[in-house]
Amino acid sequence: MGVDDTLTEVMEIPPESQKSDVAHEPHESQETDEELMKRIASGDTLAFRQLVERHQSLVIATVTRMIGFSEAEDLAQQVFLNVWRSAPRWRPEAKFTTWLLTIAKRLVFNESRRRGRARLLPQSREPDDDRPDHPDETPGPDQQLLGKELHRAIETALASLPEKERLAVILRRYEEMPYEEIAIVLSLSLPAVKSLLFRARNTLREKLSHYLGE
């Protein structure tokens, strides 16, 4: 099976995979990312499949929040194709996922510029849609409406941020990435990243002040 076929088979993502709280569970393979990359550099498509399965939810979740779910899977495939092509030249100078998200950043920013302005498309699922039904815990209609409204407001506020600020927030808030790794992904100094996040948080706080009671 070729690389394109492997990607097509592995990355047939059901709609619910767009949720940002997808658990990025490690694949059951005991090999490290570095060991898999060595095998991929030698043309091992099985190792490539394992790497894609291990990290596809991270890439798709991040890309979705940047450009919307409708194009996230296609762009994620491009990210992993770049991994395959770059494997022979790859050196473990940074954590693999940091390097992976650096590739994703470049492709997302290119797509944003191609469009002229990146925009975040609404997600097809609202928060908590996958929770089991418990009659005594089910929110009333007003609470459900408020939750959906807040969800849309957060997406809109996030989409309004400049692309670097938006990606910094996504990596810090949703992926819990350390400042040092965000700095590598964005090719910025550590103080610049902290300044970027400070501005972004102030902007989000202002845009969401209605819901924060400010």
List keywords for this structure.
214 residues; mainly alpha; Rna Polymerase Sigma Factor, Chain: A; 2 domains; 10 helices; elongated
How does this structure look, described?
The chain is mostly helical and 214 residues long. It folds into 2 domains: 3-14 and 29-115, Rna Polymerase Sigma Factor, Chain: A; 142-212, Winged helix-like DNA-binding domain superfamily/Winged helix DNA-binding domain (Arc Repressor Mutant, subunit A, Orthogonal Bundle). 65% of the residues lie in helices and 0% in strands. It contains 10 helices and no strands. It has helices spanning 3-10, 33-41, 45-67, 69-86, 96-115, 141-159, 163-174, 179-186, 190-207, 209-212. α1 (3-10) packs across α3, α3 (45-67) runs antiparallel to α4 (69-86) and α3 (45-67) packs across α5. The chain starts with a helix and ends with a helix. 28% of the residues are buried. Mean pLDDT is 80; it is low at 13-27 and 118-135.
Radius of gyration: 18 Å
CATH architecture of the largest domain: Orthogonal Bundle
From the spread of the alpha carbons, the general shape counts as: elongated
How many domains? The number is 2
Report the biggest beta sheet as strand number plus sense, adding barrel if it closes.
none
Enter the CATH topology name of the largest domain. Answer: Rna Polymerase Sigma Factor, Chain: A
CATH class of the largest domain: Mainly Alpha
End-to-end C-alpha gap: 57 Å
Mean residue pLDDT: 80
**Helix share of residues?**
55-70%
Task: Report the β-strand fraction as a percent range.
Answer: under 5%
Structural class: mainly alpha
